[in-house]
UniProtKB/TrEMBL annotation:
Entry's Gene Ontology molecular function annotations: phosphatase activity
Entry-linked Pfam families: SpoIIE
Descriptive protein name: Serine/threonine-protein phosphatase
UniProtKB keywords: Hydrolase
Organism name: Streptomyces cinereoruber
InterPro entries: Bact_Sigma-Reg (IPR052016), PPM-type-like_dom_sf (IPR036457), PPM-type_phosphatase-like_dom (IPR001932)
UniProt entry tagged with the keyword Hydrolase: yes
Gene3D superfamilies membership: PPM-type phosphatase domain
Domain PPM-type phosphatase as annotated: residue spans: 183-399
């Protein structure tokens, strides 16, 4: 008999072991309360022979992996993203297996659209290819459940929050898209610092067919005023993008929205981009931001200088559009001025030259944009001794061709 082929007039529809495991969770996923996701996953893994199961979520500072609490799940202290098996799985987006006297500890990335919420960890006596296949599919289902349930619970947010967060930062994090996206033709990764006190910086992106749209903004000031202005700017950007207007019109739309809602001396610097993921044609408008950097073969080869227009809210003229054709593998680094400037008395500016040096050290062929963006941001924070008087944001885009 050939399994899965036609027999008795139709295909074999009998349920196998793996389908029964996943199907049991899928059948009740739509009505599963958020706090029961962990216990349901622990129960499923126990039926596979697993023990010490953990769902490890990335904290907002992207420094640690924090165990999700729940009946049947192993607790424990947060694990560092750097220098741990779970962290290696997280940074590479690949499974990591570690053998010991107790069995095999398996770590699997929780991937959703290329973004990674964290890591699924479980110990089994032994692991074969059937186990790996089922565990990979379980991890995919868990990632989807976390994403779906996150919209109506605070449980995952509380788990990920490693320290007190300002109200302005709460607003900004609720505004953000996933920090990373990885698709066959294009990848995006962004980082915001300080993670628990960010106010005016933000970014947004969308992949619509062949077009990747991206905006990076920096609202003047600090605290709630800056967060409110950033919210208006991103909202106006999304509205204009969704009605499919051109880049220059997106700028004008955002400019009007900020000017109508805030005093004449209030403004938002911004950079809006459109990448044709089929051809590599990149267009951008620069409204007061530092010029992006083009990284080719893991070296910064040029600044993407272009005519700049006034920041959003100042009533600038219709902007000129910069344009370049990327080569497969090219990366474009966008950043706000807080990444390279240090305004604290007695401290020199960090500067773009040192930023470029860091890119050359960290951007390598075997490293994803998510890992490079994270390490680049953290390296710059350490180089400033953790001190900054402004938000610092970077977004890295890779065109894969």
């Amino acid at each position: 008999m050939t399994v899965g082929r036609y027999e008795h007039g139709g295909p074999d529809r009998s349920e196998g072991f793996g389908e029964a495991l996943l199907g049991g969770l899928l059948d009740r996923a739509h009505e599963l309360p958020p706090d029961r996701v962990g216990p349901a996953v622990a129960d499923l893994l126990a039926r596979l022979g697993g023990r010490e199961s953990q769902i490890l979520l990335q904290d907002y500072g992207q420094q640690r992996l924090v165990p999700l609490p729940g009946e049947g799940l192993a607790g424990g202290e947060p694990l560092p993203v750097d220098h741990s098996d779970a962290g290696r799985c997280f940074l590479t987006s690949r499974p990591v297996e570690t053998a010991s006297a107790e069995g095999v500890r398996v770590h699997l990335p929780l991937l959703d659209g290329g973004d990674q919420a964290g890591v699924l960890a479980v110990t089994l006596d032994a692991v074969d290819d059937d186990d790996r296949r089922i565990l990979r599919r379980v991890a995919g289902l868990v990632a989807d459940l976390l994403q779906t349930k996150n919209g109506y619970t605070d449980l995952f947010f509380r788990t990920r929050r490693g320290e007190p967060m300002s109200v302005a930062a709460e607003i900004q994090w609720s505004l953000l898209p996933p920090l990373a996206m990885s698709m066959p033709r294009v990848a995006v990764a962004g980082v915001l610092e300080p993670a628990y006190d960010v106010a005016g910086d933000s970014f947004d992106y969308a992949l619509n067919g062949d077009a990747l749209h991206l905006a990076v903004i920096d609202a003047m000031g600090h605290g709630l005023d800056a967060a409110t202005m950033a919210t208006v700017a991103i909202g106006a950007y999304r509205h204009a993008r969704r009605i499919s207007v051109e880049l220059s019109e997106i700028y004008l739309f955002m400019d009007r929205a900020v000017a109508e809602q805030f005093a004449p001396d209030h403004f938002v610097t911004a950079q809006m981009m459109r990448l044709d993921t089929d051809t590599g044609r990149l267009q951008w408008v620069n409204a007061g931001h530092p010029a992006p950097m083009l990284v080719r073969e893991h070296r910064v080869v040029r600044r993407l200088d272009s005519p700049t227009t006034l920041p959003v809210g100042f009533g600038g003229d219709q902007p000129q559009i910069g344009e370049v054709t990327l080569e497969p593998g090219d990366r474009v680094l966008c950043f706000t001025d807080g990444l390279v400037e240090e305004h604290e008395s007695g401290r020199e500016q960090f500067g773009e030259d040192r930023l470029i040096d860091c890119v050359h050290r960290l951007d390598r062929a075997d490293r994803s944009v998510r890992a490079v963006a994270r390490d680049l941001s953290h390296t710059l924070v350490r180089a400033r001794d953790g001190a900054t008087t402004d938000d610092a944001t970077l977004v890295l885009v890779e065109w894969r061709g």
